[in-house]
Amino acid sequence: MNPRFGEKPNARTVIDKGVIVGVGMGDEMLSIDNLHVSVEDTEIIKGLSLKINIGEVHAIMGRNGSGKSTLASVVMGHPAYQITSGSIKFNGTPLEDLEVFERARAGMFLSFQYPSSIPGVQVGTFLRKSVAAVRGENAPSAREFRKELKGHMEALEMDKSFLSRYVNDGFSGGEKKRLEILQMLLLNPTLALLDETDSGLDIDALRVVSEGINSITPTAGCLLITHYQRLLEHVKPDYVHVMIDGKIVKTGGPELAIELESKGYDWLEA
Ligand code: ADP
Ligand code: MG
Q1: How far is the CA of 70 from the centre of ligand 2 (A)?
Q2: Which of 22, 96, 166, 205 is packed most tightly, with the most Cβ within 10 A?
Q3: Is the full-model pTM beyond 0.85?
């Protein structure tokens, strides 16, 4: 773990709707089985299975339009996407039973490929309220929150002045992605879905963002959606999956990402 990022609280146990959806080490956390997903009657995900355990980093690579963001959105519960068959379970609980906020409280986090700006809402307020909403009873005191925030911002090399700016309003691509990772560190998820978090980052930003991701992975599972092998030089994946046309067509280790970099995706197409 990177010493610049502070100690993490213990893995949480969250009880929602009477079901324990918290986690301990070694549990099977996310389990996706033969998933089919449509948006407005068009099938986008066409039979996808994937299991992610605590401590594992999975990378999903694939061309634009293959359904990667759709997968992340549907796991988090975006209402535009309909699961037509198959299942997603989180610590044994079928996800259709959980609202988006319950998924967040259970420890799931999604970093958007295209984060929205929220003019009028300051970053500091946004972060404080989201931590209170998601961590609930486990939320830190105001003093503790400020300390966590300061530590993470220093590690991410973010200036204090960020806190008074409006969320993502006029932010550069790199600033948006740093804010996503700052929010992730504060929310302390057990499952992080990171959608192209490396896009728009220069080398220095890529390094600090990667360190942030690495600081959570000992006690979290991570799904990294990326186009580029360069992120995977900093965040070592345990598994690399290739997604084509709504399905995982190949799974390998880190060497698969390097192979894709040189060979592209054509050789994997049926
Ligand atoms: P990727 O992230 O791999 O580039 P996406 O999941 O964003 O792919 O998109 C997969 C396909 O689904 C694309 O053809 C896209 O146009 C379509 N799609 C995704 N979300 C929506 C939506 N909300 N409405 C209509 N079409 C969508
Ligand atoms: Mg995408």
Answers
A1: 7
A2: 205
A3: yes
Element (H, E) at 251: strand 247-252
Distance 102 CA to ligand 2 centre (A): 24
2: its two tokens: 């990177």
241 neighbors 250 (Cβ within 8 angstroms) = yes
Domain ranges for the chain, please list them. Answer: 15-268
For the beta carbon of residue 118, count every other beta carbon within 10 angstroms. 13
pLDDT per position as a tens digit, 63-98: 999 999 999 999 999 999 999 999 999 999 999 889
Determine the atom of ligand 1 nearest the C-alpha atom of 225: 2
Domain 15-268 class? alpha beta
- Comparing C-alpha atoms, which of 53, 52, 51 is closest to residue 27? 53
